[in-house]
Amino acid sequence: MSTYFTKDHEWLLVEGDVATVGITDFAQSQLGDVVYVELPESGKNVAQNDEVAVVESVKAASEVYAPVDGEIVEGNELLVDEPAKVNEEPEGAAWFFKIKLGNTTQLEELMSEADYKAFVETL
Question: Which residues carry this modification: N6-lipoyllysine (predicted)?
């Protein structure tokens, strides 16, 4: 298992050829109280940087992007009924979707946890 981060504040936990994707703790803290989540459909093929999901808070709506090319294999239905979970467990139970990796070399473009923390400190 390996964890990667994007400049759009998404995290990916890669297990085999599937990555679980969510937003970072930093992202949820910037959004404030999450009130709505829109998930992608299973079976949808997406390209890196495509808008895949939507998260809305009392402050703003934000897109969640595909960090890599691939096929959506599952959305986290828990978030539809309990969007506040995003604030409680953003880098755990409140993942947004799982994607079957279409191009593993794209992982090399992403940040490690240490690199992401350094990136956030510059914001």
Answer: 59
